[in-house]
Amino acid sequence: MRSGQRITAAVAGIALCCPVALGAKEQSAKEIAHVRQVAAAFGDCVVKRSAPVARAVILGNLHDGQIQKSAYRLIDGNCLVKANDGMGAMMKFTGDLFRYTMAQALVRMDYPVERAFDFSNATPLLHLTPDTVSPELAGGTSRKAKKAVQNSAKEQMISALSKYGECVSRQAPGDVHAVLLSPLNSRQEYDAFGKLAEPLGVCLSEGQLKFSREVLRGVLALNFYRLAGAPAGAQVATLKVTH
């Protein structure tokens, strides 16, 4: 994934791909709900200002390092301040959480009303290919070796989650859409996830995955939007991307 830089904006701080998860410390349900609301408001603000760029990032499957270089305008500190009721804030987007946030906002903007979707004939999506750890680093104890192993494990999880999100979105696109349109932290969200129980189980054909509700919602949004594509007439920016 190759994205280890920390990004800070003027008043607000936004960090992509840090070693600790968003809300990694023990948080109360109230704190988690607040973080989810701030992240959603941030995403809505960014997408409202820069929808063509956000669409290009999600549909182009750009990773964090590419976003920092080619779509930096999405890392909008002013939107984070606005989302946090005008107060300064520091938010860390680990793993794929930044893209999850953008994808959820795009679904709310571009597909705001429930309707039928059919992804059965959609082209299979490409997912992140994790970096391979060289044999000399795999069993090493140096900081470089440990970081390489850690990054590879993180990328493997991101890739597995993304494939899982594609599977569920193909199995039940309408129910996934209902989840993505449900208000955060609501009974509607809880009930919508309940209707996805069967496809969520079916797509866990190999082993188990552990994730929070927010990560699951983001995984579904990312792959649902990539399968649905931008709606007719919606602008998609052309970005200069380095791989």
Keywords:
mainly alpha, 2 strands
Sequence-ordered SSE layout with sheet pairings:
Elements: E1 13-16, H1 29-59, H2 64-70, H3 77-83, E2 90-93, H4 97-110, H5 135-138, H6 143-171, H7 173-181, H8 187-194, H9 197-202, H10 213-228
Parallel strand pairs: 1-2
Describe the structure.
By secondary structure, this protein is mainly α. The protein has one domain. It has helices at residues 29-59, 64-70, 77-83, 97-110, 135-138, 143-171, 173-181, 187-194, 197-202, 213-228, and strands at residues 13-16, 90-93. Strands 1-2 form a two-stranded parallel ribbon. Helix 1 (29-59) crosses helix 4 (97-110) and helix 7 packs antiparallel against helix 8. The longest helix has 31 residues, at 29-59. The model is unreliable at 1-12 and 16-24 (pLDDT under 50).
Largest sheet: 2 strands, parallel
Radius of gyration: 18 Å
Shape, principal axes of CA atoms: globular
Which consecutive residue ranges, at least 5 long each, have pLDDT under 50?
1-12, 16-24
The tally of beta strands, per DSSP, is 2
| Mean pLDDT over the residues | 84
Q: Classify the secondary structure makeup into a structural class.
A: mainly alpha
Order of helices and strands: EHHHEHHHHHHH
- Strand-residue fraction? under 5%
The largest sheet has its strands arranged as: 1-2
Number of domains: 1
- Number of helix segments? 10
Distance N terminus to C terminus? 10 Å
Helix content: 40-55%
